[in-house]
């Protein structure tokens, strides 16, 4: 395959680039439509009990409240006649809106739960119709039409739908700001890393192909299934980052071959056989890590698999075809536009710092590795107390309108009706049965009151019994709302959900479903936790197989997995220390809360995949040298000497794109950006620079061990970066100023 790709790009570079340009233009046209098709939400398990409860409430009862309008009368109490008149008019207008159902207000019910303790504000509850996407659109229309000043009232919007609409809008603003910061900084760093204008522009070509292609993919998928709007973030950051990674590897190898005296055509062929093969294999390892996200039912996580796998595959294909064609046309002009400080001699092919570092580590592996391990384990220590949750209004800044409404509801009202536990009992039941069940629930610890069709129940109060055996509402389901004393998403609120689910079902009921925001949180955590072992096992097994095919060793995959897990634990532990425990909250401007379950899983998969990306970059060169006859120590020293600068530069460039998300106002976007950037740097510097050479030294010859049958299997089916047509030239290039590789390792 690589022979055919190399031959095509050498013989027909202009044709390859023309076809690529047409495809990018077509993908851009299709990809523009992605922005109108991507939706918010997607954090809930569609098969969970809470989701099914919500569906029954939508079908049988017109939907549960997901929009809260907090209405104030200024200096007047909302019970004053003038305010009441305006409030009733507002409610009447809301009931005319086709996007709303189940509009309930204080002025209808005179319920104390809908009236603030000081009497100066009241709640209007409503259900916004539609799925995740249309519901947010409808919420935007309602909020724009009614919030602010309405007659003599002040109206503010909150509730789950308002939070979701504001969250999606804020994420797009955060993404734009992050790109405005990251792109210029990345361009400047590209000039520094590549040392010339022409070479620095080439990664942008690969990044453009990857981003345009992935947006087109997301647009097509968005037409047939739900795709989260948050997938845009990963597409842009990963597309540009992998374009830089892969282009840097290809250009560095191409420059090496030219410096060794190869013709342009032979240098392109050799680059495709070596670096091109590594790019394809590296993309496979990253794609495998992201594919694991497909095992989760939440389309928020699945969307990142769609975007991540798409951007990785398209970036690899673009690198394999577009980059060699560009190199063929540019030839020695790849070094055009050089900046004054880089030196264009062949000494720069090997980074002295990384070679010396590897040599020093391998002389004292334990002494150098133990302090690094200690720091990483210390960073991972906060994981011992980690707790998980799902996004709510607290991920927004404190001045966000929907968050301010949520804060007011918790502080000024007797329980938040919009955050109530929703119970749906299916089956034909009479008054007496529902009455007994409601009284049973009212006695549970943490319940403020229970509202049912038979009345309102509180601890210590009795409800007058109705006629025995009288059917209710003519429905085959009954709905009860349980308002608790604990704040939403707290441990107490989740415990109440568990108590309700464990309570004895009413007589004659066919099924009891418990829903609401806290039930959704429990179900989301259980759903992810139940599938996490399978996803982790899938990643570990497939990565092990791929690395075995690449190295021919069963020890190397195990060593890679262990080191990657240590670096990931350190990065996620640091994020727990910051975002859960609240350190740096005043600097970054977020509210401490449990770690977001979905974003933590996503961070793990992204960071693991990129760690394996750099693992392949380094190990491929070490394996190439080892196959050429060098011992393990020399191969590691020169392997890191060749690839250390590539990996560290690529990691810094990719980290810039992720770190730019620290400017976001949505806290889980900050966590994802900082965590991903930190994980990349830890892996590229601490793991590749210190722990890898230390582990290789301690393992010695056993680092390449494989049982006989597996060795024979690898000899037949394994993958190698080595270009068999360039072995002689490569071996010659590994001698510098008459110094053998072994002597160079000693001097390093």
Structure, described:
With 748 residues, the chain is α+β, with helices and mostly antiparallel strands. It has helices at 2-11, 13-31, 34-37, 49-61, 81-95, 106-109, 132-146, 160-194, 197-222, 231-259, 264-291, 299-330, 352-363, 365-380, 401-412, 431-442, 491-502, 517-551, 555-580, 585-588, 597-627, 632-659, 667-699, 708-717, 727-733, 741-747, and strands spanning 67-72, 100-105, 121-128, 148-150, 153-158, 388-389, 421-426, 447-452, 455-457, 477-484, 511-515, 595-596. The strands form three sheets. It has a five-stranded antiparallel β-sheet with strand order 2-3-1-5-4, sandwiched between helices. Strand 8 and strand 9 (455-457) form a beta hairpin.
Q: What is the 3D form? A: elongated
Q: Radius of gyration in whole Å, from Cα? A: 30 Å
| Percent of residues in β-strands | 5-15%
- Count all strands and give the number: 12
Query: End-to-end span in angstroms?
Result: 38 Å
**How many H/I helical runs?**
26
The largest beta-sheet arranges its strands as 2-3-1-5-4
Main beta-sheet annotation: 5 strands, antiparallel
Main structural class:
alpha+beta
Percent helix among the residues? 55-70%
Whole-number mean pLDDT: 85
Describe the SSE topology:
Layout: H1 2-11, H2 13-31, H3 34-37, H4 49-61, E1 67-72, H5 81-95, E2 100-105, H6 106-109, E3 121-128, H7 132-146, E4 148-150, E5 153-158, H8 160-194, H9 197-222, H10 231-259, H11 264-291, H12 299-330, H13 352-363, H14 365-380, E6 388-389, H15 401-412, E7 421-426, H16 431-442, E8 447-452, E9 455-457, E10 477-484, H17 491-502, E11 511-515, H18 517-551, H19 555-580, H20 585-588, E12 595-596, H21 597-627, H22 632-659, H23 667-699, H24 708-717, H25 727-733, H26 741-747
Parallel strand pairs: 6-12
Antiparallel strand pairs: 1-3, 1-5, 2-3, 4-5, 7-10, 7-11, 8-9, 8-10
